[in-house]
Design brief:
- Pfam families: DZR_2, Pribosyltran.
- This is Competence protein.
- The chain contains 14 helices and six strands.
- Helix 11 links the parallel strand 5 and strand 6.
- The longest helix has 13 residues.
- It starts with a helix and ends with a helix.
- By secondary structure, it is α/β, with parallel strands linked by helices.
- About 40% of the residues lie in helices and about 10% in strands.
- Bound molecules: zinc ion (2 copies).
- One zinc ion binds next to helix 4.
Length: about 280
């Protein structure tokens, strides 16, 4: 199948040089509404406006947007107050909403790989100015899922950010040793249990990781359980500072109260087949 082999090659890394090829495979149409757009920018102007960009005031530890600023001092959100994060900040391009959900679904399960540079650009723009040396490491997929999907979406995003910010990329800095079931519907402890031993630093790169500052990259940050497991493994290997970079950040509110949000995030996280079935 021609498309498949094209995507297979593209899946390794989406380069600027490939943009014309991407245009051939996916004529420039808005990824959300399908309207024709002038160039491969991903979205039309109206749909750009539907993305929710995290604003201020925000938690000084995790950048969660807060309804009101503190009366004095620097703001810290309730989850960070209860349990101080191991990371040094979360740079989210967007807050998870219907538009970002659709984009990630198209990118991750719908094979619209041409969206990688668009999403990566938004993510790179949200990263703060970083002092010292930083390395990008994508959240890994288990090899079975990688084989099924043909690409790791986090690698594509991380390589886009690497190019835009001039940062080194350690494509296989982390490995996923076991395939984990859906984390949707599980409590915090159950999620951590499922992930125990699932993620580890790649021994071939432990020298590079020791003492390094890391930007951990993923498409969606849901409960934070997966990124926490990655951070734990990186810290154990001696990593210094760790920032999390994601395209869409799910706020706890959405996880807690929406019946319809749970299967949606589940679909995002887990199943190419479910996506195909949903599309009919
Ligand atoms: Zn549109
Ligand atoms: Zn916080």
């Amino acid at each position: 199948m021609e498309t498949r082999s094209f995507l297979g090659r593209l899946g390794h890394e989406v380069g600027e040089a490939l943009t014309p090829a991407v245009d051939l495979a996916f004529p420039p149409r808005c990824a959300l509404c399908g309207d024709a757009i002038a160039a491969q920018t991903g979205l039309c102007i109206d749909c750009w406006a539907t993305l929710a960009v995290p604003g201020e005031p925000s938690c000084r530890l995790c950048q969660r947007p807060l309804a009101t600023g503190p009366l004095d001092g620097e703001p810290v959100c309730a989850p960070c107050l209860a349990d101080a994060p191991r990371h040094n900040g979360i740079a989210a391009a967007t807050l998870y909403n219907e538009s970002s959900r659709q984009l990630v679904l198209s990118f991750k399960h719908g094979r619209r790989l041409g969206l990688a540079p668009v999403l990566a650009r938004l993510m790179a723009a949200r990263l703060p100015t970083l002092e010292g040396n930083w390395i990008l490491i994508p959240v890994p997929l288990h090899r079975l899922r990688l084989w099924k999907r043909g690409y790791n979406q986090a690698v594509l995003l991380a390589s886009g950010i690497a190019r835009l910010r001039g940062l080194p990329l350690l494509r296989e800095g982390l490995i996923r040793r076991k395939s984990t079931p859906s984390l949707g519907g599980l409590g915090k402890r159950a999620r951590a249990k499922v992930l125990t031993g699932a993620l580890a630093v790649n021994k071939h790169h432990s020298e590079t990781i020791r003492g390094a500052n890391i930007i951990l990259v993923d498409d969606v940050l849901t409960s934070g359980a997966t990124s926490d497991a990655c951070i734990k493994a990186l810290k154990k290997a001696g990593a210094n500072k760790i920032m999390v970079s994601c395209f869409a950040r799910v706020m706890d509110e959405a996880l807690d109260n929406a019946h319809h949000a749970a299967p949606n995030t589940d679909l995002l996280l887990n199943s190419d087949t479910a996506y195909e079935n949903a599309r009919g």
